[in-house]
Amino acid sequence: MKNLDKDRLKQHIRQLKHEKHAVILAHNYQLPEIQEIADFVGDSLELARLSANTDADMIVFCGVRFMAETAKILSPDKKVLLPKEDVGCPLADSVTVEDLLLLKQRHPAAVVVTYVNTSAEIKAMSDVCCTSANAVEVVRNVPARKVIFLPDRNLGDWVRKNLPDKEVIVWPGYCYVHEQFTVDEVHQAKSQHPDSVLLIHPECKPEVVQFADVVTSTSGMLRYVKTSDSQTFIIGTEEGLIYRLKKENPNKRFYSLGTPKVCFSMKKIRLMDVYNALQYEQYEIKLDKKVLTDARNAITAMLKYKG
Ligand code: SF4
Q1: Is residue 135 within 6 Å of ligand 1 at its C-beta?
Q2: Ligand 1 atom with minimal separation from the 90 CA
Q3: How remote is the CA of residue 109 from the centroid of ligand 1, in Å?
Q4: How many helices (H) does the chain have, and how many strands (E)?
Q5: Residue nearest to ligand 1 atom 3, measured at CA
Q6: Nearest alpha carbon, ligand 1 atom 6
Q7: Does residue 218 line the site of ligand 1, with CB under 6 A?
Q8: Which percentage of the chain shows pLDDT scores above 90?
Q9: How far apart are the CA of 91 and the centre of ligand 1, in A?
Q10: Whose CA is nearest to atom 8 of ligand 1?
């Protein structure tokens, strides 16, 4: 199907979605055209949980690979499709099975706490998963003083600072998008918009995070803005979130922290890919049974330790 205008393409997508009893989920960083066609927009874990609770037979996950895998882990009987094959996350890909095996051998008494931004195989080798919103709480509550934390060094550093009684071994991975925010950008944004609240994602560098009024995940930012009395906000995360913030809070103003920071993997999926995913049922996420079960156990353990 070539050269269809966007409105007609959206109609075809809705039609196919209905015929196939499918649901479309989109991460907060997806392009506006994808957010508009989605049934739900959210962060990776919110979407994975939604996919487990929907009665749809098929899930089209517009995000990066580890997110679609997490949806499959939580809804093993559903068909989970990723509209583009090559949408990896460099942070998730920074740690391999061999790396983690070595770390575990070196620190046999440590509990492995893994941020959701990891592959299914890494989750399956972990004791417990966490999100950026509950990382500190999970590490605090796991029954061990020594913890291997992966894969994000900035989030790991934030955890370490908050829990000085724990020995936290941090994997040196990072998100290249959040890593781009600088202290200069913070000073400039604060002087240009002095009455704004500065919200920063914990995947940013510690020297940037220290200036935040609020350090929180994308879902935390959405919740904070909705209930805040402030009218203007400086947003220190991937640019895509601003579209949703503006849509849900039309009377409030939002400024990017410095130049807009873009995750290229997140912007690869277009309407035509969503259409093709539904039409040809591609690209299906398939996981080994043991990986699926062990990864699910690590995610379930998070509920136990997040207090
Ligand atoms: S924003 Fe960063 S962590 Fe999120 S998908 Fe892109 S590279 Fe990965």
Answers
A1: no
A2: 7
A3: 30
A4: 14, 12
A5: 175
A6: 263
A7: no
A8: 91
A9: 6
A10: 89
Q: Given pLDDT bands bounded at 50, 70 and 90, which one contains residue 44?
A: confident
- The residue nearest atom 5 of ligand 1, judged by CA position, is 89
Query: 203: CA distance to ligand 1 center in Å?
Result: 9
- Output the average pLDDT for the chain: 96
pLDDT tens figures, 95-119: 999 999 999 999 999 999 999 999 9
Ligand 1 pocket, 138 CB below 6 A? no
> Would the CB of 76 count as within 6 Å of ligand 1?
no
Tell me how far the alpha carbon of residue 246 lies from the centroid of ligand 1, in angstroms. 21
Choose which residue among 45, 89, 132 to substitute to test ligand 1 binding: the one with the highest number of ligand atoms within 8 A of its C-beta. Answer: 89
pLDDT in tens, 150-167: 999 999 998 999 999 999
Band of residue 2 on the pLDDT scale cut at 50, 70, 90? low
- pLDDT tens track for 213-266: 999 889 899 999 999 999 999 999 999 999 999 999 999 999 999 999 999 999
Domains located in the chain, CATH noted? 6-89+266-286 (3.40.50.10800), 92-174+291-305 (3.40.50.10800), 178-256 (3.40.50.10800)
